[in-house]
Amino acid sequence: MGAKIISGTETAKAIREELKTEVDELRQKHNLVPGLVTILVGEDPASQSYVAAKNKTAHALGIHSEQVTLPADTSEADLLALVDKYNKDAKIHGILVQLPLPKHINEAKVLYAIDPNKDVDGFHPVNVGKMMLGEQCFLPCTPHGVLELLQRSGVETSGAEVVVIGRSNIVGKPVANLMLQKRPGGNATVTLCHTRTKDMDFHTKRADILVVAAGVANMIKGDQVKEGVVVIDVGVNRIGMTESGKAILAGDVEFESVKEKAAAITPVPGGVGPMTITMLMKNTVQSARQHAGLA
Ligand code: GUN
Description:
The chain is of the alpha/beta class. The protein folds into two domains: 86 residues, Leucine Dehydrogenase, chain A, domain 1 (Rossmann fold, 3-Layer(aba) Sandwich), CATH 3.40.50.10860; 133 residues, Rossmann fold (3-Layer(aba) Sandwich). 40% of the residues lie in helices and 17% in strands. Helix 1 packs parallel to helix 10 and helix 6 packs across helix 10. The longest helix is centred in the first third of the chain and has 23 residues. It starts with a strand and ends with a helix. It binds guanine. Guanine binds next to strand 4 and helix 6.
């Protein structure tokens, strides 16, 4: 069976068109320009490319974006002072500190310092707690992107056996949480697998929807899934470099073997990645509305 390819690129494009219309309207009717700042500490090439993509997308949508790049030896105190400056900056509605941070900086301390009302990543404990309770908040971008991608591809999650692989705070835990909630894109029966799971294949072979966010290249193979599964591959692994210096990417799912059995599958690149960036833009626009009392 040839799987349907779920294109994050196409879905993200459709959402960005909706957002562009919304941003134009906010500017024309309310003189409001959503503002985003991205803060990158150090020179990690993957982080550099993510941050560049975020700023490029913001710019294309008419969102005001500022990019701050700091040296790897920036002190925690200086970073906290910068976050505080943007907490108070009325032009800025979204603050994103790119992770991971250098080892000498306490990541939690920095994330907690971001005003929860500007936390467009949805990483502040106030937003994590609200998400858990099903309250209105900024949803974390990758999990939110996974839900939107499933919904807009017409995949029914209600009553589905969903298996999530990976328990990170950024992807695995929030995806599992959102998919079990009583909400559109939720209502699934969720199993969360991780490095201590005893029999991974037992779980993956039961999945109607398999979400893989383990950070291990080509970890899931065709013989580990059932016929007709819908596969969302969140992995972005750099497995090499082209002669021209471009990163060669692989997902956590072995695309060629799994696509033979799946009903639908996301590619890497062009799957979840573009959705993550798009949901960040959505959160930034939502934040601008909330700050202006237009929510
Ligand atoms: N590093 C990897 N993914 C993310 C993300 O979604 N947000 C931030 N801030 N850093 C990340």
